[in-house]
Design the sequence.
């Protein structure tokens, strides 16, 4: 019997066409349109299509992702073999990571999109959709958490990052590399990752806002004070190097941690936040002593997704946050 794959389309470049020659492309195509453009899909699986949103991925909200997560749970309970989610690449890493945290399912959850819209020569959407459906139908892609399939590579949601504004090979998983690949329509899984869903569940408060502040040379800490004053309930800092700040920013962070949880991530885009190397004011040792929570290997945007969902789930104390970040930031 053929597998059943549910293709859920949220919009993005893969679904974009021009309104006319003056304006740029906007989300237009539905999941049904995307599937119709790749006739081979019906040979691989019985495809069911769903188009809950049709937006650029910059317009997606956490609420939209929770809606999608609930829909995926429902489809899984109805016997879906695997899920393919198509959306804009700008926030794929956040959606895929959020689903990795929210869904405790064995079926493959595969996110894909396109860098070249359907009006461009060499549009990559159809090939990415084909690859995603092949992975979503494949038994070896089960129990790996959510995945991003792009450009014939299979990435774990917890590692993958968009690294280029326009290149079709934009998605990278440094330093682990993709966990697999596609070759002549064959799915190859080279390394397994354990699923790591959040133990917490139930979203109680979607009005909580978590800010993210990237620090630079000579930062005076104003943005950090402003974020607290503006009512953000949590803050992620993309600090310099292994987790370092100016003296002024360190003072602002000292004030901030009195009121809200503050997570220390690195702006470098790779490696783990340090914990016990540097001793200067504004060093990682100083900032952790001030009460910041180390993000480990989670980059700023992933740390913001984790902190946001944890805060949405209800009361959580500092020790529990440290434990969650230790768990998710080291796997
Ligand atoms: N480059 C993005 C994409 O590939 C822009 C649009 C979006 O993220 O929705 O889809």
Sequence:
């Amino acid at each position: 019997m053929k597998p059943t794959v549910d293709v859920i389309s949220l919009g993005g470049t893969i679904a974009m066409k021009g309104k006319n020659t003056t304006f740029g492309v906007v989300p237009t195509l539905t999941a049904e349109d995307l599937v119709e453009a790749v006739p081979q899909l019906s040979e691989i699986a019985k495809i069911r299509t769903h188009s809950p949103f049709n937006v650029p991925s910059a317009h997606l909200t956490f609420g939209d992702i929770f809606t999608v997560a609930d829909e995926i749970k429902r489809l899984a309970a109805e016997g879906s073999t695997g899920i393919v989610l198509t959306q804009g690449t700008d926030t794929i890493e956040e959606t895929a990571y959020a689903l990795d945290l929210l869904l405790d399912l064995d079926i493959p959850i595969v996110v894909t999109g396109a860098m070249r819209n359907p009006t461009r020569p060499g549009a990559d959407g159809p090939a990415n959709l084909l690859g995603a459906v092949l992975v979503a139908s494949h038994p070896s892609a089960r129990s790996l958490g959510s995945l991003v399939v792009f450009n014939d590579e299979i990435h774990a949601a917890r590692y993958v990052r968009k690294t280029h504004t326009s290149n079709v090979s934009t998605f990278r998983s440094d330093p682990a590399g993709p966990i697999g690949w596609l070759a002549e329509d064959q799915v190859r899984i080279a390394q397994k990752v354990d699923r790591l869903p959040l133990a917490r569940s139930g979203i109680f408060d979607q009005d909580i806002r978590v800010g993210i502040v990237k620090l630079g040379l000579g930062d005076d800490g104003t943005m950090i004070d402003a974020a607290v004053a503006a009512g953000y309930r949590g803050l992620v800092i993309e600090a310099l190097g292994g987790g370092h700040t100016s003296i002024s920013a360190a003072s602002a962070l000292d004030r901030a941690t009195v009121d809200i949880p503050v997570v220390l991530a690195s702006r470098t885009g790779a490696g783990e936040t340090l914990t016990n190397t540097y001793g200067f004011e504004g060093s990682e040792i100083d900032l952790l002593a001030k009460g910041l929570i180390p993000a480990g290997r989670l980059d700023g945007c992933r740390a913001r997704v984790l902190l946001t969902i944890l805060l949405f789930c209800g009361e959580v104390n500092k020790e529990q946050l440290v434990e969650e970040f230790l768990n998710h930031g080291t796997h």
